[in-house]
Amino acid sequence: MNKLWLVGILEAGLLMSQRPINTVLFPDRDRAQEITYLIKSDSIPARFGFGRVATSTEIARLDIDIRPDGKGLPAGEGKPVAGKVIFAQKCAACHGVGGVGGPNGSLVTTTDPTKKRPEKTIGNYWPYATTIFDYIRRAMPFSEPGSLTDAEVYNLTAYLLNANGIIDDKAVVNAKTLPNVVMPAQQLFVPDDRKGGPEIK
Amino acid sequence: MTKKIIHINKLTGKLSRRAMLGGSATVAMAIAQTAHGKAVQEGLSFTELIPDDPTKQVGTLAGEVGTRSGFEKVIKKPSDISSRSPLQDFYGIITPSDLHFERHHAGIPVIDPNKHELVIHGLVDKPMVFTVADLKRFPSVSRIAFLECSGNFRTGKEAMSPQDICGLTSQSEWTGVKLSTLFREVGVKPNASWFLAEGGDAAIMTRSIPVKKGWDDAIIAYGQNGEALRPEQGYPVRLFLPGWEGNTSIKWLRRLELGDAPWQTREETSKYSEGIKGGKIRQFSFDIDARSIITFPAFPAQVEKGWIEIRGLAWSGRGKVVKVEVSTDAGKSWHIAELQEPVLDKAHVRFRYLWHWNGAETEIMSRVTDETGYIQPTFKQLIEARGADSGYHFNPITAWQLKADGRVLNKPENVR
Known about the structure:
The complex is a heterodimer. Chain A is globular and about 65 Å long. In chain A, helix 5 packs across helix 8. Helix content of chain A is about 30%, strand content about 5%. Chain A is mostly helical. Chain B is an alpha+beta fold. In chain B, the strands form 6 sheets. Chain B has a 5-stranded mixed beta sheet. In chain B, strands 6, 7, 10, 11 and 12 form a 5-stranded antiparallel beta sheet that branches. The chains are: A mainly alpha, B alpha+beta. Chains A and B meet through strand 1, helix 4, helix 7 and strand 4 of A and strand 4, strand 5, helix 7, strand 13 and strand 15 of B.
């Protein structure tokens, strides 16, 4: 890089401009004096050329996220009955037998989800079923993150949805069915619409 | 020896090793003069280094890194998931890097900067991989701004310090490359409206962020207060989103994916969302609401009647602080506090108000107004506006009770 740049004012609008920066942008002397980085330049490059192109293989290795529309869900499927066994072995120590209680919080709702919540659980608070798969695969179990197979994650997802009374015990959870599960709390979620100003909200 | 017991300083281990190697005759003398003899060789306590007259004894020599005075006992208060900045011990507006609050979701990873990469893909013209060295080649930017956890409010006891009440806020000078620079480099497509930021920790922590924030003022930071990021703060690179709730500034950043809808990750649905009126749950509450707190006099300080300089911090995630008012009569009347320059955008600002205390019991408190015209509310106003099923983004006025004997106690709020 043999050019020098006006680093202090890297604004998108300026980048499109081919104007000489020192005459147009700083007509007054005081303003110009404030700039310690004033350097000869007439543009910023569209691209610097640093870094390298990512291959599809290396993206695929990292790209584990699941969206509510199911984008990202892998092949395979899960059932509540299979998930119940895995949960007892790998999850109940932290989240309680049957997903109730436990030192790291309940996952299963034991009260009417339309009434006041004694505790936030998947059944009464989580707005999207796809988040269950994404989060378990991403970070659980806490002591052995990333150790579960996709099949185990599907089974656990099916179990937790069934234990919360959201799907029946014969339901199959896979890339097609999971995005269609409607969570009880989804209708409660609203985006923040505050914009500052005097209102307390 | 009857010297007062003072906490052992990290310095001491280094000193005793040096002394044993015979590297400094002066220090060896100091050791020989102490009463504890052999025990000293196993670890010199700070107390024993205190000379009767510092002008009569050559001090310790230059070291590779500085150390805090052994007389100063400033600590973060760690729990399993976080640690809190000792706001009552700070001067000015910069948080020492080793006292920056921490919040992480699966511990602090050890990441080799020579192996770490940031991948940007999704709705872009050219998916790219950047090494840490690549990121440092781009034009850089530095900015002083606060970082605050959205779950930064505690109450319930009188014996609570500013650190206990809202120690999950800190301020640093952050240095890095503007995300907009990288967005141009990869060619973000016009239909990209959100991006996913993902960390390389054991939680593989993720948040969905509107692309507009990326263009506006997001930084991919590798520097903090003049040095590399601390591991607790995301070494070697983190996202930094000025003014936004702390958890969106993903640490140990390894991946950004551009998309056209939010991913609805666990950290933006089941966590970091708050109940509001009408049984609704508010999410994507990114902005940190304006807040202030008096950090002196505050628990556990003890004061005397007479002149007191009331000092504190004020900040807003929506812009600049324009005014801080202080009340010394439990909120009946308010006085304009002096703001110490620099008053920066989305930054902690130091305020002060000189007051003559007549020794009578009272309550003192502060409230901030930001440039949007938002005035820091009371706890009661927040509960009235949102209902009791809330939690995150609680920024109420904090009152301190001054007792006649000079004790300063938190005034607990009645939560439920």
